[in-house]
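The authors assume throughout that readers already know how a fold can be written as discrete tokens. What matters is that the chain and its backbone geometry are given together, residue for residue. A single example would do more here than another paragraph of explanation. For illustration, here is how one protein appears when written out as sequence plus structure tokens.
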Amino acid sequence: SNPNLQFESYNYAPIIDFNSNIQVNEGEVANLNLKVFDIAGESVTIETSSPFKNSGTWQTNYESAGEYDVNIIVKDSAYTFQKSAKVVFKDVNRQPQMAFIDDIVANGGETIKLIVNAIDNDNDKLIYSVSDARFIFGVSSTEQQSNNIFTWQTKKSDTGNYTVNATVSDEKSS
């Protein structure tokens, strides 16, 4: 008599390898570097939790700072396999942008008002300064509350050309 042999195929769970502890700066691409292998050669589907794409990448923006837990799910015809990763996006300080300041022409004895305007895309508090000690913050109580207005009460003897450098930084600048 001939023995009847029957072989059953066995399906193994897919193997997944990825970067499970990611630290990147805001504005950069986070990549889980997903590598999936199915021993049986079956096709697999990969799902990642939002905001990652199923490719395992996320193009961050400057509002992405924080810690995120990401779930990765891999499925073949028989198994569903899940792992998680922690992703940390470090806050990136964007430097303030100062507006152009036109040349100022005045006669000796006049008050010169220098207004330095800037924006900070992170909405950080701005700190303004000028390189000439003859300029003071504002002249009225309202202007003194705004640290971007500088005045110089010139004298008739102050006639001449002056170069004044204005700078702006934010509270996170080093």
Observations:
- Residues 89 and 157 are 56 Å apart (CA to CA).
- The longest helix spans residues 141-145.
